[in-house]
C-alpha cells in the first residue's frame, strides 16, 4: 500500500505526463482538456483556495470513468470529481493536482411520476430536478441556497441540507440508490429504486457525505414526495436574540413543524439596514419601529400543507410568534411573501460592508444551546473585534456564523483565525457539530479532531484505505489538517453565480 | 491478519477456555453466564438455526463491553451481540460459538419532549419507545410486526421496516445518533442528537443494517415526529391479485400517501377462511360474497393525519379502492377498525395448516413488478406443489412471500429449497431486493451474490476487514454462504412470543 500516515505518495511530474498521454489515447477526442481556462475553472470552489489540476476530464460514458480511475490507480494520479464547484470548504479543489473528473455534463433528469422517483445524472442541477418533479405534481425538498447552480453529485458529496430540513430532511433522506465507481474503477450500484432495502452493507449512505473520497457517483435515484398545496409566510422582529430564540423554543415545543424557521441576528440585520437605508431601498417594512432604534433580531417562518392544515397552523403560529415580538407580519399573497423573504435572501450579500472576506461556518447546536451559542458569538466579536453576523435554520439548530474581515490586513486575518477557532471549540463544547451541511473539505480539516475521537477518525481512515488503497480519490481533504491561512485565496475569480 | 477468504481463524477450545477464565476475572459477578438454560436461549433466533455459545455475557456498563471485545480480539473468540432474538434470518445465532453479548437489559428510554428525541439503550423494546413517546405527544413510527418484543438494537441491526414505511420510513430514517464500540473495543459515537450533521464519514448509517458485524450498538438517539391526530381504516376485497394490485397502482399514482396499504393474496385468505370457517370464528365480514365463492385477494388501507386531512382523503380512497372491489368496508370507530385489522394480524398464523414450517421471504419489487411477482408465486406453487401464500406492504413493494411445507418430509424440503431459489432469482430479475427489512444473516447468505456484483461484495468485505481485522464480530454471516437445509431447525424451542 502506497499510503502512509503522511498521506498517499503520488506520481512525479514525468510519470504524470506519461499517464496523461496514455489517458488521451484511451479517451474520446475532446474528453481530456488541458487548456488553461478549463484548468483554472476546475482549480477552485467557492472557498477560493485554488490549485491547478493537470487536466479536466469530461467522460463521455461509464467506460471512460472506469478508464480514468484505472489509469489513475496504475500511475498514482490524484482524481477529484467535480460538479458546479459551489462547495464552500475547498472540497472540490484538486489540492494535490492531478485530474479533475468533471461530471457537470451528466445532467439527465427523468421523473417516474407513478412511483415518485427522479432518476438523475450526477451533474443535474438541484433546482432543475425539483422543477421537473413539480411538473408532474411531485416535490424534491432539499434546497441548499446554491440550489440554482449546485449539482446533485455535489449535494450528495456533502449531504446538502437547506432551509426546509427540519420538516423535510436533507439530501440523504431522499437518495434511494446510487450508481458509480469504486476508487479502483469497478462499477457499483448501492441500493435500488425501492423504498425498503437491507441487502449487504449500506455503502450508499457511506458514500453520501463522504465528499467524493470513497467513490465516484455518476447517477442517483431520488425519492419524491407529493408537493404541499399551499403555504403561509410570517416575518417577526424581536428586540434581541434571546427573545427570538425563546420563541423558536416555544414553536418547537408546541410540536408545530414549520417548513421554514429562519433566524437572523441583530448584526446581520444591522448590515442589511445600513446598506438599504443608505441606498434608499429599504422598502416599507418597519425594521426599526422608530428612527434610531437599534436593528432587531428576526424570525422568518413558513408553514405548508393542504389548505385546512395551513389555516389551522396559522392561528397557533400567530400566537406563538407574536408573544414576544416587536412586530409580526403575515403575507396575504405570494408577492407579500416574497417581500418578507427579501431580508433573508439578501442579508448575506449585505455583510460585505464589514470586510471583503466572509467565512461562513455552518455549525449545528442542540435546541437548548442556541441562545448560549448566539451569546458566545457576541463575546467573540468583543474579544477579536471582528463582526460575527449569524443567521440560519433555527428549527434544526443549523446556524451560519460568519466572520467578516479584510483579507489584506494581516492583523485582521489573525483575529479571524482566532474567531473561527473559538467558535468551533464552543460548538463542540455545547454538544454541537462543526458542520451541518457543508462538510469538512480543506477549511474544516483542522477541526475534525475536535469533533471526533482518535478511534473514530481511525475507523474512517481505515475505511478510506480499504476502498481507495492508493489514496487517489480527492486526496488532501478531511484527514490531513490544511492551514488555509497560509494560502492566499483566489479572490479575482468570478463564479457564474457571484453577485 | 488472521482472516482469510475462508473466514477468520478462531481460538481452539482450550484457548477459548483460558479466555473465558480471564473474562470472568475481569467482569462483575454474574455478568458471565455459562448455565445451560442461558446458553440455549442465546443459541438461536426465530429462524431456529441453533448453535450453543460458550457463554452469555450481560455487561454491567460500557467498560465491560470494551473488556469483552478486547479479550475476544486478544484470544480470537467470536462475539455475537443479541437483543430479544427475534431476527428471522439466523443473524443472532452464534454459529461459530463463542460469546453472546446480551444487551437486552440495556433498556433505558428517555424522551426529550421539547426537541423530539428518544434517547434509548440498545435493549429498549420498540413498542415501549413509542408508548413513552406517545405519553408526551410524540410518535416513533417504525413498527415491525415484532414491535412488542424486538429491541431497538435488533431493529438497527437489520434496519427494521414495518407496515407504515411507505409513508413514515424505516428505522434508518429515525436514527440520528449511535453510541457503541468498534469490533476492536474502542468506544465511538456516530452522529449527535442533531438534525443536520456531516462531519467525517457516516459510520452511523454504515452500522445501521450491518447486522451486528461492524460494531456493537449500546445506545441510540431516535428522532420523533408529532403523532397524527386520527386515522381512517378501510378493507376491500378483490376477485384476484391483479385487481387488487392494479388498485394499489391507482392509489399511488394519485399521490395519496396511505399510512398503511397491506395486500393479502388469495392463498393467504384461503388459509384464514378455512381455519375460521371450521372453528366457527369467522365473524361478520362477507369474505365470500356467497357460500362456495373462492377466497378473494384483499387490501387493508389506512390514512392518517389531522381531522381535515383524513376527511378529504377518505373520499378519494373510497373511490379508488372501490373501483374494482367486490366489496369495501370503512371502519366507523376504533372497534370496527380492529375488526378489519383482524385478518392481517392473524393470517400469518393461519398458514400453519399448510405445513409445519414457514419460510418468510421479505422481498421487495418495484411497483410495476408487483403483479408479475404475484403471478410468479403461483407458477412456483404449480411447479413445486408447495403453497406460496403472500401478503405484505404494497405501498413500498415489500411482500412477504411464504413457502409452507413439512420439515420432516425430505421431498417437501427439497421442493421448498427449489421454491425459495426460484423466487429469489425472479425478484432480482424484476429489479427487486432479496430482503427489505429482515437482512441477510444465515438464511439469505446463499443469495447475496444474486443481488450484488463481486466488486460490490468485495468492497463490503474490505470494510468488514478494515473495522474488524480479527473477524470476531458475528462471524459466519452474510458473506459465507450457509446451507440452512443441512442443519435441522430447533423446532422444540418456544419463544415468549410464540402463539
UniProtKB/TrEMBL annotation, chains A, B:
Q: Which domain of life is it from?
A: Bacteria
One Pfam family for this entry, by name? FAD-oxidase_C
One molecular function GO term is: oxidoreductase activity
Cofactor(s) needed: FAD
**PROSITE patterns, A to Z:** FAD_PCMH
Q: Which residues form the FAD-binding PCMH-type domain?
A: 49-227
Instruction: Write out the entry's keywords from A to Z.
Output: FAD, Flavoprotein, Oxidoreductase
Keyword set includes Cell inner membrane: no
Determine if Hydrolase is one of this entry's keywords. Answer: no
**Similarity comment:** Belongs to the FAD-binding oxidoreductase/transferase type 4 family.
Return the protein name.
FAD-binding protein
